[in-house]
Amino acid sequence: MRARKPIILIDDSPQSQKIVELFEDNEIDFVKYHIKKFEDSCCGELPTTKTPSVIAAEGIFKEESLILYYIEYMKEKKVKEDLEVGKDKSLQKNHIDETDSAYW
Fold first, then answer.
1. DSSP for 49-93?
2. How far is CA 94 from CA 50, 80, 82, 104, in A?
3. pLDDT digits (tens, 9 = 90+) for 7-40
4. pTM above 0.90, yes or no
């Protein structure tokens, strides 16, 4: 099953642009919705929604400091996953080497 991408609600503010850049710089996949387009195509006016906001499987992050925390969490999670994949490849290689040597 594929992981769900976080949704970033943005407007035209510098803060929104900064958050989008941070997601891109950290190679975090996301879906971007401009608040005006969201209002037009979906649910009407969203008067209580702050931008930028992130809606993710891990929760809803409405303040810049919380969004930065989420980005750090995702970076650490990616590093951990990369290390585990590297360890698995190393174990597979060792297993193949041992199996090959058994036949000689």
1. --SSEEEETTEEE-SHHHHHHHHHHHHHHHHHHHHHHHHHHHHHH
2. 52, 21, 19, 16
3. 999 999 999 999 999 999 999 999 998 888 766 6
4. no
Determine the Cα angle at 35 with ends 60 and 46, to 5°: 75
Helical (H) or strand (E) element with 8: strand 7-10
Indicate the CATH number of 7-75 among 3.40.30.10, 1.10.8.640, 3.90.550.10, 3.30.70.100.
3.40.30.10
Given the DSSP bridges, would you call strands 59-61 and 31-34 parallel, antiparallel or unpaired?
unpaired
CB atoms within 10 A of CB 17: 13
Distance from C-alpha of 5 to C-alpha of 53, rounded to nearest angstrom: 14
